[in-house]
Amino acid sequence: MKDLLKQIQNCKKCGLYKTRIMPTIYCGNIKSKIMFIGEAPGKNEDETGVPFCGRAGKILDELLDHINLKRESVYITNIVKCRPPKNRDPKESEIKKCRCFLEKQIKLVNPKIICPLGRFSSKYILKKYFKKSFEIGEVHGKVFKINNIFIIPMYHPAAAIYDNKKIDVLKKDFKVIINNL
Ligand code: URA
After folding, report:
1. Which residues line ligand 1 (CB under 6 A)?
2. Ligand 1 atom closest to Cα of 78?
3. Using only C-alpha atoms, what is the Rg of the chain?
4. What's the whole-model pTM score?
5. Which of 13, 45, 48, 144 could form a disulfide with 41 if both were Cys (CB 3.0 to 4.6 A apart)?
């Protein structure tokens, strides 16, 4: 994990390193059975290097609390490690350049359950394992099993900031994690 941290800190593969303050790599337990993969760091994450430490992070904590898990007991990362300027969506080219780091994280942590959060990471993970594209609206909360890994895509926690019906959907979907642990 130490080598990986260095590689990410020194990475200049795409232009995002020029505008970010620091990369956001992961938080939590590297031995966890559960890995959450968000999209990209926002302002708070860029300033602290801690994934999901702003508003979306509060919602993620609430969802973890709903299933009696602490953020220290799970592994949380993002598909893109550096903040896209003005929180724009990560570009396909940035995801492509950054994905080697996520791949190494998946190998190192070897989780039983992977929960991609939001459409970008869900699309990436489902394509990686199933070579197919899926809409997040169709697959959230469903369990996809491959090579002894359970993949459970979720809406992005930030979706609940703008749509207050999403928190109930997210809570229901988070229960699926516990039922498969
Ligand atoms: N949104 C994400 O996808 N990741 C973070 O780390 C913060 C907000």
Report:
1. 24, 38-42, 45, 51-52, 56, 78
2. 4
3. 15
4. 0.97
5. 45
Residues 55, 161 contacting (CB under 8 angstroms): yes
Do 32 and 111 form a contact (C-beta atoms < 8 A)? yes
Asked if residue 42 lies in contact with residue 83, where contact means CB atoms within 8 angstroms, the answer is yes
Q: Judging by beta carbons within 10 Å of its beta carbon (0-12, 13-18, 19+), is residue 168 exposed, middle or buried?
A: exposed
Across the strands, what pairs with 94? none
Q: Ligand 1 pocket: which of 36, 39, 53 to mutate (most atoms <8 Å of CB)? A: 39
Atom of ligand 1 minimally distant from the CA of 157: 1
**pLDDT per position as a tens digit, 9-34:** 999 999 999 999 999 999 999 999 99
Calpha distance 49→91 (Å, rounded): 20
- d(CA 42, ligand 1 centre) in Å: 6
pLDDT, tens only, 44-102: 999 999 999 999 999 999 999 999 999 999 999 999 999 999 999 999 999 999 999 99
Q: How many residues does the chain have?
A: 181
